[in-house]
Design a protein that fits this description.
3% of the residues lie in helices and 55% in strands. By secondary structure, it is an all-beta fold. It has a 22-stranded antiparallel beta barrel. It has a four-stranded mixed β-sheet with strand order 4-3-6-5, with no helix packed on it. It is globular, with a radius of gyration of 26 Å.
Length: 701
């Protein structure tokens, strides 16, 4: 919820680049080949194998991500350097894709919805040994996904290997873990991973942190920032046509601090002085059945998800309860996908899902009427409100797509999705369309179009806090792209896009005639740009890629007919990666990224805090009218394979932000130095850390 902005957890920055950007990976299992015109007779050789073995090895692209400098072996951190993707709010934040909000995205793990896939304090929730493949659909995706207007992050965890039971232990400065994998029976195998953050080793309970000048900051550690996660999977090859998998996934993040009278947040909002604690966690379980036959693939499953979050502020001996937000989501997912191939050039994809969702919210907070287009959500507080709400946010969809390669050079994907939201009682019919022209075997032009929708964020539509009658957000995506494969494993692609977003929420000013509604659907958004990727696969001991994105993202207040840059707007992003296999034992690489500074709202004055005498608040200028300087960073990595006590071992040496660049991402008043409305003293804060070395060790036995 919005009030989380009050407590910003200590975060680590890990940036990298995802080197895979290709057309139509959404349904790769049964994607038809382009029609061939030759009539040469060929012999068919059928190879029988356990289907789970096919998915037990990570893809070449996923393997590259594990070796990305600056990621500590975490392939999903690469998303922040993918063309069109930026970290909302600077280098630390949730991914914002092609001008959309982070909340517009959909995350799936192995066919099922995920609680979250990124820890608050650093890496993703996945062990580096598990990610088999990772697809990012930035725009124009098909009917297999619903309830998203931004991007889709589809993570596939690999299947267990049929081998003797093997254990791998990983240690690094930032986390450690254990991974066990092996064969359970002739036709089944399993793995289980559990990891724990090393961050508590860097903090001491009762320690007061220092600010950039070495002075006490007013923030005292009550419980060090911490996180943990686990994943497990068991796969049973029933026969050559059927496979059953059982998966478990979970994660938890937590931190607790004390804000004394010197803390900036307490100087800004005295009600927050005291103990603060943040905890979020989720646990999920799923059972999925895959059926394969000559022309048919059916995937069906049921998943259970419990996702909870709690934030407490302002607790003290005099106020033992303080302020809090406590949310919990219980979800049962029923999903099925049918992929039927009429012929080599023609197949049909049918998706259906029902998500049975109950969300419970208990809170005692100050009313905050603001959205992501408002520059100061955390200081403009209203009356104190409290309530308990249990709401049914269940939703369901059916999607049908016909994929037809109707000539040697042309392929179409024509689909429609029906989607219904129980809470808003809205139904949508959403067309999706893709047209591809195969210039030759190596070059393809693709155009895509689609309409999308999602329910508003729950804190905008809850009774008391929001407007339950808000309509769902909608978006229209249009893309045009070209991809070409060249000699010696070189390839390049370029894609332009345009997004139109409608019915976004607007926080109503108290002067409005309908201010009692709190929010209305009077904001529109527009985003457009072009993404370029030049890639070289591993040949002659090296691989690398260069990505370049140019984009623009705006929002318009329809009541005032005022347009301004979106807070995550980042016009220029450049990423360059190189990896060189120096020898059988040594592998070297670097990752350089540069991006436009994020837009911000200038502070033009100081005003008295109406809630607390002797305290002060900023006066803001035009929203997001200025921009920080260009941000950049270089990470390097060296990997050395050796043996330790007769066991296979891998050492990883990384230096992140090797030249110690400080990239400004936030400004505020220096509250500790302000004594009157004449004291306009601004302090800048960096989203980055100084030079940070890291060493890791992985041992397998």
């Amino acid at each position: 919820m919005k009030t989380q902005l009050v407590l910003t957890p200590l975060a680590l920055l890990l940036c990298s680049l995802f080197p895979h950007y290709s057309y139509c990976q959404e349904n790769a299992d049964t994607q038809p080949d382009k029609v061939k015109t030759d009539s040469v007779k060929t012999d068919r050789i059928e190879v029988l194998h356990k289907r789970s073995n096919v998915m037990s090895e990570i893809t070449e692209n996923a393997a590259k991500l594990v070796a990305m400098p600056g990621t500590n072996g975490d392939p999903l951190q690469a998303v922040f350097a993918l063309p069109g993707v930026v970290a909302a709010g600077g280098a630390v934040g949730s991914p914002a894709v092609r001008g959309s909000s982070p909340e517009d995205n959909l995350f799936e793990i192995d066919f099922m919805p995920a609680g979250y896939i990124f820890h608050d304090f650093g890496q993703s929730i996945f062990n580096r040994h598990l990610v088999q493949d990772f697809q990012l659909y930035s725009a124009g995706y098909g009917t297999s996904y619903s309830a998203a207007t931004g991007a889709v992050f589809d993570v596939s965890l690999r299947n267990p290997k049929h081998q003797d039971i093997q254990t791998t232990i990983d240690f690094s400065l930032f986390n450690s873990g254990i991974f066990v994998e092996g064969q359970a029976s002739e036709n089944s195998a399993f793995y289980f991973s559990v990891r724990k953050s090393m961050l508590p080793l860097f903090f001491e309970t009762g320690e007061e942190l220092e600010d950039d000048d070495g002075e006490p900051s007013g923030y005292t550690i009550n419980a060090a920032p911490d996180d943990n996660d686990y994943q497990g999977k068991w796969v049973w090859d029933i026969n050559n046509n059927n496979m059953l998998s059982v998966s478990v996934t979970g994660a938890q993040d937590s931190a607790a601090i004390n804000l004394n009278e010197r803390a900036d947040i307490a100087l800004k909002i005295p009600d927050y002085q005291g103990d603060a604690e943040f905890t979020q966690k989720f646990n999920s379980q799923s059972i999925i059945w895959d059926h394969y036959s000559k022309n048919l693939h059916i995937k069906s499953g049921i998943g259970f998800l419990n996702d909870s979050e709690r934030l407490e502020l302002g607790k003290s001996d005099a106020n033992p309860i303080g302020l809090f937000i406590d949310s919990e989501k219980e979800q049962i997912s029923y999903k099925s996908r049918l992929n039927y191939q009429f012929a080599q050039s023609h197949h049909l994809i049918v998706d259906a899902a029902y998500y049975d969702v109950t969300e419970t919210y208990a809170y005692d907070i100050f009313q905050q009427l603001c959205t992501d287009i408002d520059p100061d959500c955390d200081s403009d507080l209203g009356e104190r409100v409290n309530d308990i709400n249990e709401v049914d946010t269940s939703n369901q969809f059916v999607g049908i797509t016909d994929v037809w390669t109707f000539s040697e050079n042309w392929q179409t994907e024509l689909g429609v999705q029906w989607q219904h939201n129980n809470y808003s009682e809205e139904s949508f019919f959403l067309p999706r369309f893709s047209l591809s022209y195969f210039i030759n075997d190596n070059s393809t032009i693709t155009a895509k179009y689609g309409k999308y929708n999602r329910l508003q964020d729950i804190d905008y539509i809850l009774p008391t806090l929001g407007n339950p009658d808000l309509k769902s957000q909608t978006a229209t995506h249009t893309t045009l792209g070209f991809e070409q494969h060249l000699a010696n494993e070189w390839s390049w692609s370029v894609e332009t896009y345009y997004k139109k977003m409608q019915d976004l929420p607007l926080a109503l000013d108290e002067a409005e005639n309908d201010a009692d509604l709190l929010y209305s659907n009077d904001v529109e958004g527009e985003a457009y740009g072009v993404d370029l990727l030049i890639n070289k696969n591993l040949v002659d001991k090296w691989y690398g890629w260069l990505s370049l994105s140019y984009s623009k993202s705006e929002r318009t207040n329809l009541r005032e007919q005022q347009s301004f840059e979106y807070y995550a707007d980042t016009p220029l992003v450049i990423n360059m990666v190189l990896n060189y296999q120096l020898s059988e034992k040594w592998n070297l690489g670097f990752n350089f990224t540069a991006r436009s500074g994020q837009p911000y709202t200038p502070i033009i004055g100081v005003r008295e805090n109406p809630r607390a005498e002797g305290y002060f608040l900023p006066i803001y200028g035009q929203a997001y009218s200025e921009r920080f300087d260009l941000a950049h960073r270089l990470d390097v990595r060296a990997e050395y394979k050796s043996s330790l006590w007769g066991l296979d071992a891998t050492w990883v040496f990384e230096v992140m932000n090797i030249y110690g660049q400080e990239n400004t991402s936030y400004i505020d008043l220096d509250y500790a130095k302000i004594n009157s409305t004449d004291d306009l003293i601004i302090v800048e804060e960096s989203d980055n850390f100084e030079l940070r070395p890291s060493i890791g060790l992985s041992v397998t036995f």
